[in-house]
Amino acid sequence: MPSQEIIIEVSNVSTSFGQHKVHDNVSLEVKRAEIFALIGGSGSGKSTLLREMMLLHRPDSGKIKVHGVDLTNITEAQGQSLRQHWGVMFQHGGLFGSLTIQENVGLPLREHTDLPDSLINELAEWKLSMVGLQSGVYGQYPSELSGGMLKRASLARALALDPDLLFLDEPTSGLDPISAGEIDTLILKLRDMFGLTILMVTHDLDTLWQVSDRVAVLANTKVEALGSMLELSVSKVESVRQFFDGKRGRSAYAQEQKISELHI
User: Fold this and answer.
1) What is the DSSP-derived secondary structure letter of residue 131?
2) What angle separates helix 117-130 from helix 147-158, to the nearest 10 degrees?
3) Beta-carbon neighbour count of residue 114 at 10 Å?
4) 74-78: long-range contacts at Cβ-Cβ below 8 A with a sequence spacing of 24 or more?
5) What distance in Å separates the CA atoms of residue 167 and residue 256, rounded to the nearest whole number?
6) Is the pLDDT of residue 53 over 70?
7) Cα separations (Å) of 141 from 96, 125, 138?
8) Which has more confidence, 44 or 213?
9) In sequence order, what are the beta bridge partners of 44?
């Protein structure tokens, strides 16, 4: 369960692209062992904020701290050291097409450790088995995998360096409901087994209900609401209501109705 230790601290972050303001004094905190989600409509700045947390973009002003380290004026060496404490699962996998799945998972270990190849191969196999992939696919290439298997392989690579922080970008996008549900279960299992802190961007309402501890709703350049899914589902904030009351929404009332129907 989440502790009170702050792993990610975003303070008064503002970001613009030309005349377009994306963030205006955005602030939030992510606690250790918490599964924290960023949601919002297109252009709300959730992906930009994710990139800023991962040192892929610098905000115009404000401060972001990860593991207590201020990212504002961090050196390249400090950034490289910090990145070894987190793993990233990109929306489309981000695996190298010319490498096998096992080689992809072993790549971070080859880049950042002096371990022998034989041990790296063993560790890569262990990470792949950890996410539910069988040995028969280890020698296959990313183009040969199904969407669900590709997500698992990407997650295995994110876990290669034993991180304590995971960034997940749309972890269930493009998956059928069964495969998406399996990824949800895997995310919870990894958090509970290793005490991982997980920051994810997702549009998947089922994933949000199943795995998130807290959710930040980005809209109109700000964090307009923050809380558990149950708390957000009864919020009166317009941007939140649009999210929950749409055709694909999951209001608390709708959840209760579905549960009642299952027991009729």
Assistant:
1) T
2) 130
3) 6
4) none
5) 31
6) yes
7) 9, 15, 8
8) 213
9) none
- Ordered DSSP codes for 112-124: H----HHHHHHHH
C-alpha–C-alpha distance, residues 49 and 219, integer Å: 13
Phi, psi of 16 (to 5 degrees): -135, 150
| C-alpha angle 185-195-133 in degrees, rounded to nearest 5 | 40
Q: Side chain identity at 247, as an amino acid letter?
A: K
Query: Dmax over Cα atoms in the chain, in whole Å?
Result: 61
Find all residues with CB under 8 Å of 39, minimum gap 6, and list them.
46, 201, 202, 203, 208, 215, 216, 217, 218, 243
Beta strands in the chain (DSSP E): 6-17, 20-31, 35-39, 61-66, 69-70, 86-89, 165-169, 197-201, 214-219, 222-227
Q: How far apart are CA 91 and CA 168, in angstroms?
A: 8
Amino acid at 106: G
Is residue 178 within 8 A of residue 200, CB to CB? The reply is: no
> Which of these ranges, 8-12, 35-39, 75-79, has the smallest mean pLDDT?
75-79
Q: Print burial letters for 75-111: b (CB count within 10 Å at least 16), e (below 16).
A: eeeeeeebbeebbbbebebebeeeebbbbbbbbbbee
Instruction: Enter the pTM of the model.
Output: 0.89
List the strands of the sheet with 69-70, edge to edge.
Answer: 20-31, 6-17, 61-66, 69-70
d(CA 126, CA 134): 10
Q: What values do phi and psi take at 235, rounded to 5?
A: -70, 150
Q: In sequence order, what are the residues at sequence separation of 6 or more whose Cβ sits closer than 8 angstroms to the Cβ of residue 149?
A: 133, 137
Residue that the structure tokens 């190298």 belong to: 96
Handedness of CA 138, 144, 146, 152 (dihedral sign): positive
pLDDT tens digit sequence for 77-113? 999 899 999 999 987 778 999 999 999 999 999 999 9
